[in-house]
């Protein structure tokens, strides 16, 4: 048993035989030619053919990994058409009277070197893209068509490097995982591996003698184990079995409607705490974002995040979710979430203190910056705005006034924004009691069960001594939820739950009976919850 | 001739994809469109040259547009930068 470490690209396990991929070294020979025109037109023909191949690859990748990741081949097509690149090749053929293969190889090397020497990791990785194109052109010119690596049985592929086009061309049903020596975690091949969900490692010191041996690729620890012992193998198999079980559950319920047996449709959304979580929400097939916590923007920053910075984050999520609902919860800072630059005074009882909407209605400039950013983002997707910690009707009216002012200001400045739904968090007993009136003012409610439980039972969530009496199924909580749903509906607002209780499968049926319209949970809970709803 | 200056907001700078889109956009116009960053410059229809300028987040690029359709090109290119970079 030998063990090699590498850099993790995709956290997953693969077990199988190693297939060592030796590239047939493309030795391009320099040859003198006599007919310059004929050689140039050989190049033009090859370029067209390479373009057609790339177009086909683009279509294949689009189907398998989606448009965003397939875009690399669109970029390849454009690189192939680049005037500087092509002119350099044509000039070499004409001026030096050399064969097209040689002119392409030299030009490719030159351009790749320019990128390889840049002081930016991302651009350095682009050298591989240029090599990929020039290799393709040389192959076409020399009449080789076999750029598909035919795998006979499922294997872990080991190679010096894999070009993005090679990765996409591999028969996925025979690819258990791959291990390369070159290639950064930034490379398109790495990105494709993640999207195709294939375990992968890079920067591994690979050996040709591994060919045919059994190996375990442990993408959790970043190691490759050659000739694993029986125990290691068993352990890996067990882990893989767990992965498969989990994935099965996911697959079965992806793309399915969230609908009960009696035909009631429930909106199943995800809670996210940052832009990068939106990917997980999509992977788990969430139908929208039911709670986009905006605090990360403030907590990760050393000063107040600007409108542009916020716009960028909101817009990114709106675009990723492509028309699906994205509910942004306005700043919920204070209590256990602190940012130094807010200079909030220390409090005796912060959970009941100066936080969330209370700060926002006081420091209107901060609040309006956020509202403007959210409104502007709504031009790029389906954005809703939700206010936290509401205890009175006045707060909602005041917040809506500021929202209306922000809209007017944007309109006066000629900045576009879209229509937004407005909602409030129901997380205080006060909000529950006045929910009938609140419903008249907003489009929706989202019940935050964590705070609602803490405030209703008067139990500090942060105090572990109280854990044994913290009962989230307490009848008072369930009755509050029921009351909120009824009052919301009577006042024309739809009602969802975004607290931890939303993911509690033992309560799903109770919630649906109450008439809850939406449940918003962590991305990982979306599919299990959909499975549950479909059995009710 | 028309020109404008723009500070790049995109985390990755002018990376492959937007550079490709920029080239597409620039090719729609007859005007000559040139990007400058410090000493470096590139015509907006040359993908590899634009990428090799290595424009990063926070960099200021200066764009000049000259030709018969410079008005329309100015608007389109400025728009492009604002919404993509």
List keywords for this structure.
heterodimer, A: 536 residues, alpha/beta, Enzyme I, Chain A, domain 2, TIM Barrel, 2 domains, eight-stranded mixed sheet, eight-stranded parallel β-barrel, 16 strands, B: 85 residues, alpha+beta, Histidine-containing Protein, Chain: A, four-stranded antiparallel sheet, 3 helices, 4 strands, 38% helix, globular
What's the tally of helices of chain B? 3
Radius of gyration of chain A: 29 Å
CA-based shape of chain B: globular
Unreliable parts of chain A: none
Strand order of the largest sheet of chain B: 1-4-2-3
How is the main sheet of chain A built?
8 strands, mixed
Binned strand content of chain A? 15-25%
As a percent range, the share of helical residues of chain B equals: 25-40%
Helix and strand content put the structural class of chain B at: alpha+beta
Subunit organisation of the chains:
heterodimer
Question: What is the arithmetic mean of pLDDT of chain A?
Answer: 88
CATH topology of the largest domain in chain A: TIM Barrel
- According to CATH, the homologous superfamily of chain B is HPr-like
Supply the CATH class of chain B. Answer: Alpha Beta
In words, what does this structure look like?
The complex is a heterodimer of chains A (536) and B (85). Chain A is built from 20 helices and 16 strands. Chain A has 536 residues and is an alpha/beta fold. Chain A folds into two domains: 27-141, Enzyme I, Chain A, domain 2 (Orthogonal Bundle); 261-533, TIM Barrel. In chain A, the strands form two sheets. In chain A, strands 1-8-7-3-4-5-6-2 form an eight-stranded mixed beta sheet. In chain A, strands 9-10-11-12-13-14-15-16 form an eight-stranded parallel beta barrel, surrounded by seven helices. In chain A, helix 4 (100-116) runs antiparallel to helix 5 (121-141), helix 11 runs parallel beside helix 13 and helix 13 (364-377) crosses helix 14 (393-412). The two termini of chain A are 50 Å apart. Chain B is an alpha+beta fold. Chain B has one domain (2-84): HPr-like (Histidine-containing Protein, Chain: A, 2-Layer Sandwich), CATH 3.30.1340.10. Chain B contains three helices and four strands, in the order E-H-E-E-H-E-H. Chain B has helices at residues 16-26, 47-52, 70-84; strands at residues 2-7, 32-37, 40-43, 60-66. Chain B has a four-stranded antiparallel beta sheet with strand order 1-4-2-3, with helices on one face. In chain B, a hairpin with a 2-residue loop joins strand 2 and strand 3. Chain B is globular and about 35 Å long. Chain A binds chain B through residues 71-72, 74-75, 78-79, 82-85, 111, 114-115, 118-120, 122-123, 126, 129-130, 308, 312, and chain B through 9, 12-13, 15-17, 19-20, 23-24, 45-49, 51-52, 54, 56.
């Amino acid at each position: 048993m030998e063990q090699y470490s590498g850099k993790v690209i995709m956290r997953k396990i693969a077990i199988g035989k190693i297939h060592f991929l030796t590239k047939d070294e493309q030795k391009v020979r320099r040859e003198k030619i006599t007919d310059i025109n004929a050689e140039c037109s050989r190049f033009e023909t090859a370029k067209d053919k390479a373009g057609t191949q790339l177009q086909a690859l683009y279509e294949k990748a689009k189907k398998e990994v989606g448009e965003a990741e397939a875009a690399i081949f669109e970029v390849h097509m454009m690189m192939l058409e680049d005037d500087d690149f092509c002119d350099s090749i044509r000039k070499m053929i004409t001026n030096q009277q050399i064969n097209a293969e040689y002119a392409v190889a030299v030009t490719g090397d030159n351009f790749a070197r320019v990128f390889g020497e840049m002081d930016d990791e991302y651009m350095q990785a682009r050298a591989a893209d240029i090599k990929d194109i020039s290799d393709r052109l040389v192959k076409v010119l020399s009449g080789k068509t076999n750029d598909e690596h035919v795998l006979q049985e499922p294997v872990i592929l080991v190679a010096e490097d894999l070009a993005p086009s090679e990765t996409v061309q591999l028969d996925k049903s025979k690819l258990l995982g791959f291990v390369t020596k070159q290639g950064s975690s930034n490379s398109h091949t790495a990105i494709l591996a993640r999207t195709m969900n294939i375990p992968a490692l890079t920067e591994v010191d690979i050996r040709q003698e591994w060919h045919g041996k059994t190996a375990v690729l442990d993408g959790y620890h970043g190691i490759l184990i050659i000739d694993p012992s029986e125990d290691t193998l068993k352990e890996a198999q067990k882990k893989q079995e767990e992965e498969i079980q989990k994935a099965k559950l996911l697959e079965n319920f992806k793309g399915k409607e969230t609908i009960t047996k009696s035909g009631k449709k429930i909106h199943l959304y995800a809670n996210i705490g940052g832009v990068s979580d939106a990917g997980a929400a999509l992977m788990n097939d969430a139908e929208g974002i039911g709670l986009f916590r905006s605090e990360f923007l403030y907590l990760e920053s050393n000063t107040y995040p600007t409108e542009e910075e916020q716009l960028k984050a909101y817009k990114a999520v709106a675009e990723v979710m492509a028309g699906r609902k994205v509910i942004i919860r306005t700043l919920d800072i204070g209590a256990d979430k602190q940012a130094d630059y807010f200079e909030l005074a220390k409090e005796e009882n912060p959970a009941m203190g100066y936080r969330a909407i209370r700060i926002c209605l006081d420091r209107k400039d901060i609040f309006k910056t956020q509202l403007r950013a959210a409104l502007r983002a709504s031009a790029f997707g389906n954005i809703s705005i939700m206010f936290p910690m509401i205890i009175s009707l006045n707060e909602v009216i005041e917040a809506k006034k500021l929202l209306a002012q922000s809209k007017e200001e944007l309109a006066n400045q000629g900045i576009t924004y879209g229509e937004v739904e407005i909602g409030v968090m129901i997380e205080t007993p006060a909000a529950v009691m006045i929910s009938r009136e609140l419903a008249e003012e907003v489009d929706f409610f989202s019940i935050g069960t964590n705070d609602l439980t803490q405030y209703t039972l008067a139990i500090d969530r942060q105090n572990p001594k109280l854990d044994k009496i913290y009962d989230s199924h307490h009848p008072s909580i369930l009755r509050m939820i029921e009351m909120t749903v009824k009052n919301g509906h009577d006042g024309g607002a739809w009602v969802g739950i975004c607290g931890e209780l939303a993911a509690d499968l033992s309560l799903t049926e109770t919630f649906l009976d109450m008439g809850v319209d939406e449940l918003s949970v962590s991305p990982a809970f979306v599919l299990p919850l959909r499975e549950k709803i479909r059995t009710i | 001739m028309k020109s404008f200056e723009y500070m790049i907001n995109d985390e990755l700078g002018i990376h492959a994809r937007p550079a490709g889109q920029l080239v597409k956009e620039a090719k729609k116009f007859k005007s000559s469109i040139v990007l400058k960053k410090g000493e470096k410059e590139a015509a907006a229809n040359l993908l590899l040259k634009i990428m090799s300028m290595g424009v990063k987040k926070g960099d200021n690029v200066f764009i000049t547009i000259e030709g018969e359709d410079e008005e329309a090109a100015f608007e389109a290119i400025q728009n492009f930068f604002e919404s993509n970079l």
